[in-house]
Amino acid sequence: MINIAIQITVYIFLAIVLGYVFGWLITKLQLTKRYESRLKAVLNQNKENNLSIDFRNEIYQLKKENRALKEAHKKSLQGYEGQKYVLDQHNAVLDDFQKRLLSKDQVIAGLTKELSLSEEKQLTLEKKYEEEIDAFVFERIELTKKYKELLEKYLALQKRTTVFKSNDSWFSRWFMTPSKQT
Question: Measured between alpha carbons, how far is 15 from 85 in angstroms, rounded to an integer?
């Protein structure tokens, strides 16, 4: 009976061990099915942690480069803004000069127009004065001719009317009397 009790004990023990093994296998399969994706995620997290560390380092380097590029951009932008400011000032000065030139061109055009009008007036006045001078000279020549003719006639008349001049008479030589001079 001891044999049978040992056998029953061994069978119970084997049943417990087999139950335990089969239970363990079934539990393992159930847990594997249920938590396999989570387990893989956890296992991949370690790999991803290494990748994330690499990504973090790369992002850190990129941020550094980005900051350096931003600073370089700010510096170049400040230089560009300064150049733009200077160019804007130069453009304003050039626009002012151009406006002045345009206004001077307009003034010059107006002055040349006025000059041409005054030259035309001057030419008409010169012609008018030349005609008046020519008429005056011609009139003067005519008056001179008439004066000479009248003077000759007067002298001829005077010679005919007086045979003796009052100054040439013998009486006037001895007695000084004022005589009328004509």
Answer: 95
Q: Which residues contact 172 (CB under 8 A, 6 or more apart)?
A: 166, 179
Residues 6+ apart with CB under 8 A from 158: 182
Tokens representing residue 62 in the block: 């990129």
Q: How far apart are CA 111 and CA 105, in angstroms?
A: 10
Domain locations in the chain as residue ranges: 2-160
Reference 43, options 35, 55, 34, 54; nearest CA is 35
Task: Give 3-state DSSP helix, strand, coil % of the chain, rounded to 5.
Answer: 90, 0, 10
The structure tokens listed for 160 are: 């005919």
d(CA 37, CA 170): 177
Put simply, whether the predicted model's pTM sits higher than 0.70 gets the answer: no
For tokens 């994706």, name the residue. 37
**Which of these, 109, 129, 127, lies nearest to 117 by C-alpha position?**
109
Higher-scoring residue by pLDDT: 106, 46: 106
Q: What are phi and psi of 178, to 5 degrees?
A: -70, 135
**Nearest residue to 166 (alpha-carbon basis) of 155, 154, 180:** 180
Q: What is the pLDDT of residues 37-62, one digit of tens each?
A: 887 777 777 666 676 777 788 888 98
pLDDT at residue 170, rounded to an integer: 58
Instruction: Tell me the C-alpha distance between 145 and 158, whole Å.
Output: 19
